[in-house]
Amino acid sequence: MIEPQPERKTKPFAERLSGIGRTSRLVLIIGIFAIVFIGLYIIGAQQEPQQAELRLNIATLQRGLSTGTQVEPRDKLQAQIRQTEAENEAARAIFPTPDQLTEIMDKLLKLARDYDLDVTGTTAVLVQKKLNIGAIEVPYDVFTVQLSLQGMVPNFQNFLLALGDVLPTAQVNQINFTVPIEDDEPDMATIGLDVYCLKDT
User: Fold this and answer.
1) Could you write out the three-class secondary structure of 38-87?
2) Residue 200 has pLDDT above 70, yes or no
3) Pairwise CA distance, residues 177 & 195, whole Å
4) pLDDT of residue 114
């Protein structure tokens, strides 16, 4: 005959906690709070992009409602299309093409001369990249240009300020100035530029 086994009495959680040391209890409590905090942080981080997308959708819908649902006349739509195409062409005209490296370097050398800077060295490397705009993939090239210049520091500053007018698609990515100890020696600078180009399509 099988004898029934006596029931095990399980201690409540609070009593089991009293059996461990203070440090262990502190570590356990901190661990529980850390797990809860990390979980809440991850959930909050996942909600941000969705909230931003919903805000954008709401703003778009509000704009649509505020303008009304009236149908635009055909002539007006065609005029808007022509205006958009003209703006697109004007924007494309700003970008040099990859075969215009000589013109780009000529502009940079002329700009340096205009501000009394001596060019002691130049390098240019062409890197090909692609930009995704929605479902459209736009190819473009970037000339990474490095200029070594000599002159006075204020002239370097004026050169950099005028750069945006001469090459609107140029972006400065590096500047190193060397000011000599001797007064009669010129200041030196190494300037790195990224000149964004547009491929012919």
Assistant:
1) HHHHHHHHHHHHHHHHHHHHHHHHHHHHHHCCCCCCHHHHHHHHHHHHHH
2) no
3) 21
4) 92
